[in-house]
Design goal:
This protein has a domain at 112-331: MetI-like (MetI-like fold, Orthogonal Bundle), CATH 1.10.3720. Helix 4 (108-140) packs parallel to helix 8 and helix 8 (193-220) crosses helix 10. The two termini are 23 Å apart. By secondary structure, the chain is mainly alpha-helical. It contains 13 helices and no strands.
Length: 351
């Protein structure tokens, strides 16, 4: 009687009168399957509820201004109405004329700002990457006074950009510290290549610690046993850096470079405070858009802002594809492992 009861409870009669299915295996009760579906749907609703405030904020502060900028870029500045001869009280609709002017004679200033923005981004991010990695390696070493060194390295990043611009404007003054050290009188805060050098030095000084901080976080997760094994195999410091440190810290480094590229492409406050507005050698796209808006030319200013937005978006998409390749691969590997675990558990149940 006891054996018969156990065997009866262990088997589930499926539709068609086949106990245990075609191979006599116990089937999963339908209640359990429906319960799993309800749990998944409930967790999905909870996730949507938790994310909805963030989506609402992004809609208000990102999506709506972007749509309004696109709309404003289709209108021209106020001027004389050719029909009445009076100043028009509304902005005329010009369609894509503001974008077409970029590729005409009126676009010379735009392309100058575009190349300045690209130049600052490439040079500053490159220098910040090298200096930031060096800072991270120094902060990662175990020595006396390491906490003081870390605090000193991170101080420039904590200084507000406007304050940093005023500080470096004082340093690059005609009778400032920079000219005193080099022994020459250079007008750093005027037009010319030296103005670009001043912006680059000030920007790298301020934001290189940010790269170092993110790289330091990546260095913290590398186990010391990896370096010990490399030393036992005869690898020197340089080989350990190129074959162990740099590959393992690559994800954190790429994220740091991504953030710095997006920030450098929107550079405005540092050259504006340090050098000034309407300086051809250092004018960026953000400075150009602000100058057009301050002159009540909202249509061209919006068009420049939209083009800058598209430029930043393309760079961001490129980095996301670069970073997302490993993430997709890890997710696929994780799904494969989970699928194999489920199959093995099913086999254990059936045997």
């Amino acid at each position: 009687m006891a054996d018969t009861k156990v065997s009866t409870e262990a088997s589930v009669v499926r539709p068609g009168g086949d106990p245990g299915g075609r191979e006599g295996r116990p089937s999963v009760p339908a209640v359990r399957r429906h319960g799993g579906r309800r749990a998944t749907a409930g967790s999905g609703r909870m996730a949507a509820l938790l994310v909805s405030p963030t989506l609402l904020v992004l809609t208000v502060v990102v999506l709506y201004p972007t749509i309004m900028a696109l709309r404003e870029s289709l209108y021209g500045p106020k001027g004389l109405d050719p029909d009445t001869g009076f100043i028009s009280s509304t902005e005329p609709f010009v369609g894509l004329q503001n974008y077409a002017d970029v590729f005409g004679a009126a676009g010379e200033r735009f392309w100058n700002a575009f190349w300045n923005t690209t130049f600052f981004t490439v040079v500053t991010v490159g220098l910040e990457t090298v200096i930031g990695v060096s800072m991270a390696l120094i902060m990662h070493k175990a020595f006396r006074g390491r906490a003081l060194i870390r605090a000193g390295i991170l101080i420039p990043w904590a200084v507000p950009t406007a304050v940093s611009g005023l500080l470096w404007r004082w340093i690059f003054n005609s009778d400032g510290i920079a000219n005193t050290l080099i022994g020459h009188q250079i007008l750093w805060t005027t037009e010319g290549f030296h103005a670009r050098v001043a912006v680059i030095i000030a920007e790298v000084w301020k934001t290189a610690p940010f790269v170092g901080l993110l790289v330091l976080a990546g260095l913290q997760v590398i186990g010391q046993e990896v370096y010990e094994a490399a030393r036992l195999d005869g690898a020197g410091s340089s080989r350990q850096f190129w074959h162990i440190t740099l590959p393992l810290v690559k994800p954190a480094l790429l994220v740091a470079v991504l953030f710095r590229c997006l920030d450098a492409l929107r550079m405005f406050d540092l050259p504006y405070v340090l050098i000034g507005a309407q300086k051809t050698s250092v004018e960026t796209l953000s400075m150009l858009a602000q100058n057009e808006a301050s002159n009540v030319r909202f249509g061209p200013a919006a068009a420049y802002s939209v083009l800058l937005f598209l430029y930043v978006l393309l760079i961001a998409l490129g980095f996301v594809r670069l970073l997302g390749a490993d993430l997709v691969g890890d997710a696929g590997a994780g799904r494969g492992r989970r699928r194999r675990m489920v199959v093995s558990r099913r086999r254990e149940v059936t045997t």
